[in-house]
Automatic annotation (TrEMBL):
Stated name of the protein: Protein spinster homolog 1
One BP term from GO: lipid transport
Native species: Mastacembelus armatus (zig-zag eel)
Source species taxonomy: Eukaryota, Metazoa, Chordata, Craniata, Vertebrata
Protein family (similarity comment): Belongs to the major facilitator superfamily. Spinster (TC 2.A.1.49) family.
Catalytic reactions on record: a 1-acyl-sn-glycero-3-phosphocholine(out) + H(+)(out) = a 1-acyl-sn-glycero-3-phosphocholine(in) + H(+)(in); a 1-acyl-sn-glycero-3-phosphoethanolamine(out) + H(+)(out) = a 1-acyl-sn-glycero-3-phosphoethanolamine(in) + H(+)(in); a 1-O-(1Z-alkenyl)-sn-glycero-3-phosphoethanolamine(out) + H(+)(out) = a 1-O-(1Z-alkenyl)-sn-glycero-3-phosphoethanolamine(in) + H(+)(in); a 1-O-(1Z-alkenyl)-sn-glycero-3-phosphocholine(out) + H(+)(out) = a 1-O-(1Z-alkenyl)-sn-glycero-3-phosphocholine(in) + H(+)(in)
Spans traversing the lipid bilayer: 47-63, 88-108, 115-133, 139-164, 176-195, 207-227, 261-282, 310-331, 343-363, 369-395, 407-425, 445-470
GO MF term list: transmembrane transporter activity
């Protein structure tokens, strides 16, 4: 192979990226690099296809996550568990996902990303299929398998946005990220719809967990056969050989001093808390409200009515698309007037969602239609954050630290957000319940869910604080130059070695 010849994947899985790019550096210096080759090393058509595949996998991830929520009343009836144990199903998943995220973030900044994602998704699909065969005497086995599903989520969510960032810049990057994050609410909604309807058709909730594993196999094949690894930072004319890859502890230290990253992460934590609580409990809450009002019968023969999960799923899909699209459009227009547009839009989304979520919870027993209307408005405003928060992270963090930043944001937002919120809501509900009547099954869950509105207001405050630092941190990231005392990672005999910058500069 000639020195200027380009390989299909710039980073073999078991070797350092900078070594894989060495021959291309020589070819570029010799003037042998083709003029029409994009800086990222990926053609325009292939780049669009990669984004679409990543969107499909993202949709599948969230579809699997919320399939359990769509059949939660059936699971409670099948295992005979209370609200606290039901909340654990989401909590153990999020905890697994959260603690594994830094590990995959570390790998994602250093090795071939598509192979890491392929392994995670393949493992996740196998474990999800295994969870569908859990017998009723072993609820702990369902908890264990749901925890292991977090491997796939961690391997994917920390890495996929960084691939998009290496394919596009500025407005096109924001547009592609918005398409990518459309998959979160749409996939979540499909989880409720598919879970409830498959369970309804099969008269067995176990079948609801057997849909996504087959689709996961297709995702692995698409990743391996179609996705091509782009060069990190090259599309920004700042390839990683110019930026230098620093040690993991240096990355963490730099990120902890990045005010925009830290504050937006806390703001996103509030989003995770609210969405995590509503995602698991909203269909069950609506079902209990209907039973209390006499509109529906309680669970019969281990099978519960699924219309609430279906309707909530449709609402989640629609509000997700509207919320993400409106958030991006409003941010784009507001950027013409102020560079602080992104955090301001995120703050407005959270602050506007709070009163509508409060009204939805309060009106549940009086008017089903009013409840759905308020849920629609609240979720629309809440969804305005998804693509914008991701874009903020990508432009205030240098390319060689983005996977680590994604992982750190995942850990914090889930540790303080949706890792504990479903369980917390369930425990509070159990503690408030005075009797096991239909009234108190509904009322206790209603009172515990009111916490979501308060947390949304706190999150809006964090995004308002982010607006104070966003200009400075963005400028710093765009003009980043390694300092002499910053250790960098240099390949040595196939391994990574940390040395001072001064020892390698000429």
């Amino acid at each position: 192979m000639s020195l200027g010849e380009h390989t299909s994947d710039s980073a073999p899985f078991l070797s350092d990226d900078s070594e894989a790019e060495g021959p291309e550096e020589q070819g570029e210096a010799a003037g042998q690099r083709p003029q029409e080759e994009p800086a990222s090393g990926v053609s325009k058509g292939r780049a669009v296809l990669i984004v679409l595949i990543l969107c499909y996998v993202n949709l599948l991830n969230y579809m699997d996550r919320f399939t359990v929520a769509g059949v939660l009343p059936d699971i409670e009836q099948y295992f005979g568990i209370d609200d606290g144990k039901s909340g654990l199903l989401q909590t153990v998943f999020i905890c697994s996902y959260m603690f594994l995220a830094p590990f995959f973030g570390y790998l994602g900044d250093r090795y071939n990303r598509k192979y890491i994602m392929s392994f995670g998704i393949g493992f996740w699909s196998a474990v999800t299929l295994a969870s569908s065969y859990t017998p009723k005497e072993h609820f702990w086995a369902l908890l264990l398998t749901r925890g292991l599903v977090g491997v796939g989520e961690a391997s994917y969510s920390t890495i996929a946005p960084t691939i998009i960032a290496d394919l596009y810049v500025k407005g096109r990057r924001t547009a592609m990220l918005s398409i990518f994050y459309f998959a979160i609410p749409v996939g979540s909604g499909l989880g409720y719809i598919v879970g409830s309807q498959v369970s309804n058709i099969a008269k067995d909730w176990h079948w609801a967990l057997r849909v996504t594993p087959a689709l996961g196999l297709i995702a692995v094949l698409l990743l391996l056969l179609v996705v091509q690894e782009p060069k990190r930072g090259a599309i920004e004319a700042r390839e990683e050989r110019h930026l230098h890859r620093t040690s993991w502890f240096t990355d963490l230290k730099a990120l902890s001093k990045n005010c925009s990253f830290v504050l937006s992460t806390f703001g996103f934590t509030a989003v995770a808390f609210v969405t995590g609580s509503l995602a698991l409990w909203a269909p069950t809450f609506l079902f209990r409200a209907a039973v209390f009002a006499g509109e529906k019968a309680p669970c019969v023969d281990g099978h519960c009515a699924s219309s609430d999960s279906l309707i909530f799923g449709v609402i989640t899909c629609i509000t997700g698309v509207l919320g993400v699209a409106s958030g991006v459009l409003v941010s784009r227009q507001l950027r013409k007037k102020t560079p602080r547009a992104d955090p301001l839009v995120c703050a407005a989304g959270l602050l506007l969602s709070a009163p509508f979520l409060y009204l939805a919870i309060v009106f549940a027993e009086a008017s089903t239609i009013a409840t759905y209307v308020f849920i629609f408005l609240g979720e629309t405003f809440l969804s305005m954050n998804w693509a914008i928060v991701a874009d903020i992270l990508l432009y205030v963090v240098v390319p060689t630290r983005r996977s680590t930043a994604e992982a750190l944001q995942i850990v914090v937002s889930h540790l303080l957000g949706d890792a504990g919120s479903p369980y917390m809501i369930g425990v509070v509900s159990d503690s408030l319940r005075k009797t096991d009547s239909f009234l108190w099954q509904f009322r206790s869950l209603q009172l515990s869910l009111l916490l979501c509105s308060f947390v949304a207001v706190v999150g809006g405050g964090f995004f308002l604080a982010t607006a104070l630092f966003i200009e400075k941190d963005r400028h710093r990231a765009e003009n980043y130059v390694p300092t002499d005392d910053e250790p960098i990672v240099v390949p040595k005999s196939g391994r990574s070695t940390r040395v001072p910058v001064s020892s390698v500069l000429i």
